[in-house]
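User: Can you predict the 3D structure of DNA-binding protein? Sequence below.
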Amino acid sequence: MYLSTLRSYVEAVGGEMGLVVKLPGYPAVRLRGLGEILGETLEEEPG
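Assistant: Sure. Here are the predicted structure tokens for DNA-binding protein:
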């Protein structure tokens, strides 16, 4: 399942979704804005 699909389901029932990365020896980092870039495409590198 894509994160964007899961987020849509969570928001449909009135919730919020967040993603937190926890690594040993480092403080937790909350990732923001995943999947929120609209209209942008990735270009393949020549080669």
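The mean pLDDT is 78. The beta strands are 19-21, 29-31.
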